[in-house]
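Q: Hi! First time doing this. I have a protein sequence and I read that you can turn it into a structure. Is that right? Here it is:
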Amino acid sequence: KGHYQFNLQNIIRTDFVITENSTIDWFGAPENATVNINAAYMLNNVSLSDLTQDPNEVRRTNVQCVINITGKLLNPKFKLNIILPENLNEYSSKLNNLAENELNQQFLSLLLIGVFQPLPGIKQENIAGNQVTGEILSKQLNALLKTIKYVDLNFDYKSGNANISNEYKLG
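A: Yes, that's right. Below is the predicted 3D structure, encoded as structure tokens:
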């Protein structure tokens, strides 16, 4: 039992719960330990319409973000995964068919702003009302994201109004 703090350049800091059957095995020196750890974070009430951009999709669901950490303790490998409830197999299969980079983008979007990004090939609706505040926020966040090694992300935020919802895009 325990917690794993996911910390991405102090932009995203989230406590994950280490799941049962996670192990750290020592064979001799501590630096030779091998790890097999799964840590999960649950998001509640996530809209599925953000994933498909289908305005008729009104369902919301719990989404589990899982980090699998394997390999040597001092040089682990990380794999990110998104798990949906069993009754949403059509969405699970779409997520499972994503390239690793696309799945990682979905994972980070869920942690950063709590929403899915549209699946590749799905055109996101253009939302009017782009305000200066949103542009400034986007530019500052993009500057921070560029400082992260091995991650190529871009964040776009457009503020909505009473008739138009906020637009978030992570890619």
